[in-house]
Here is the input.
Amino acid sequence: MNRWCAVLWTCLALALCPTGARADELRPAYIEMAEQAPGQWSLLWKASANSRLGHSGEVMIPENCKIDGEPQREFAASNILTRLSLRCDGSVQGQTIGLKGLELSTTDALVRIAPINAAMQTVRLTPDQPNATLAKPSIISNVAATYTIIGIEHILLGFDHLFFVLALVLLLKGGWLVAKTVTAFTIAHSLTLVGTTLGLLSLPSQPVEAVIALSIVFLAVEVVKSRPGDLRLSERFPWIVAFLFGLLHGFGFAGALAEIGLPEGDVPLALFTFNLGVEIGQLAIVAVALAALYGIRSLRGQWLQPTKTAMAYGIGIIATYWFVERMVA
Here is the structure.
């Protein structure tokens, strides 16, 4: 019975978790509209070359603006960049900006508006709300709120970061121990995220992504081989292990944040709130996972260990696939 239960949970894990998912699937489009001189604006529109938006998306500029000259298009890394020069008649406050095609996608778009003599504002477009009205300074969307939400979404949609946290929950016993260990993970990836964003640290992305996948495989093996009374390395020193691997995961977060972009003048606030959002997302994952395991223990205690083993096998198999994929990419 235990064997069939393990097989069932493994199949469920594989079915629910797409093997093609990457570490940093959160790659929203980015639009920056900056005023260069009164009435003269530059617009940068960036989207992943692998997304539908990168090829068929179109920025809907404010009605009082007109394109001046020909659009300039180029490829940079895995993105398509489009640059426009605009001439706008009067203020853009109260005008609408949007992204055509966003409603057909599964990602979001960040819009940064930087006038010369007014406060900068950051708005977020979604498939449900692909347009936004540019507000007056008194009701401008908060950078802190925007980047906190981005951080939460990133940990929930970045499957390998999520799997790493889940593996910690499966391995460790006690909610407080798990919470402290996950927080050590957050502190570590915050250090490398800040260092990379500020240009103090740098590592090539492909080997980093491969080692991130390998870190998940390591934890999955630890879960499978864990035995009562015989503590594994990760069980004896969970904070140290989480901290060391967190340093690597920070480079992955930095790559995703580079894709999103940071608002000039608010980089410290954006970094802090992005990390805050990641921590909130991680603690939410921990709470849900611990509640699920508690429910299994209460209803069918004999299923608990087979469930943990099956989930560890599913996580390990998917992470191994990622590791091979990233090594040969």
In short: The CA atoms of residues 20 and 130 lie 27 Å apart. Confidence is low (pLDDT under 50) at residues 1-26. The chain has two domains: 2-24+158-328, 29-141.
